[in-house]
Amino acid sequence: MKFFRKYIFPALYGLLVYFTIRLLHDTDLGQHFWKRDFYVNGIEMACSILVGYLAIYLFEWLFRYYDSHWGAPLSYRDVVRELIILVGVNLILVNVVFVPMDMALHVTQGIDELMPWADVADINMIPTLYAIIYYGVARSSTWLKAYVNNKMQLEKLTNDQLETELKFLKAQYHPHFLFNALNTIYFQMDEDVPGAKKSTELLSSLLRYQLYDQQQQVTVKQELEYLENYIRLQQIRASSRMQLNVHFDERLSDQLIYPLLLLPLVENAFKYIGGAYKITIDGSIIDGKFVFKVYNDVPVNMKAPDNYSGIGLENLSRRLQLLYPGKHQLNTGRENDHYTAVLELNI
Description:
The structure is a single chain. The chain is of the alpha+beta class and 347 residues long. The protein has 2 domains: 2-156, no CATH class; 192-345, Histidine kinase-like ATPase, C-terminal domain (Heat Shock Protein 90). It has 8 helices and 7 strands; from the N terminus they run H-H-H-H-H-E-H-E-E-H-E-E-H-E-E. Strand 6 and strand 7 form a beta hairpin. The radius of gyration is 39 Å and the shape is rod-shaped.
């Protein structure tokens, strides 16, 4: 195939140009080229074959030049620029070879008009048409590769941006969580040193999970164990009036989930608890979905918006959009003296 493309195809290309020109020219004038002198047709075919080899060589050289200096065409502007250069080179080539040949043959045949306008049009238009066709066929694979590479680079850039944003969100969340945990320990230092030590141990365990133990995804069981440690930490500083009910479905075990999605809801429940001081936390499998519910009482006179503001919930909402696009539902809202948050995930 390589031999054919390099040594045979250029000759066929030149002959295709020649016979097309002869067909159009003879049809217009009512002539038959096979009735002409043999040496005339021989000279014309030899020059056409020469043009074929030179044209294919120049085209391939231009393609290598395009790729090495400009890169693969990625826009209409690049394609038009390449095509204009190729057509220009092709016009120069055919006029350098065909025009002197045509004039010389007219002299030898005793024709007074050395270069009829019909010959000028045929010599320039037909090779240009075939040059454009050759360009489209030869460069189509390059365009396809460029398109695929461009799409892959765009997807990689998008993924890199999302990953960077997720890392930023995690980095933003960690100090927020750490601030609340240290605040809990701070209140224990003066009154309950052993309790403060235990809180520090729990905090160390929580941070270890955040910094070392989590992979891209973790099992629901791991996430719930982490959550239980956080609840223990909060119970240390919670009022004795607090009524805490925690229930996790036994079927929640090896399902995979992205880490640190549940904590903001529980964290807000402890942060804004008031009134009857009741918190209910429930994790279940309902209709094949993981449903996580958090209910907490709030003071009746508390002037809080319907959705608690702060880094935690804003962070959670954005992470859900990135990690579970179209596969999650988060509903939060306050009604009278209680606040409810419900998160549904397709896992």
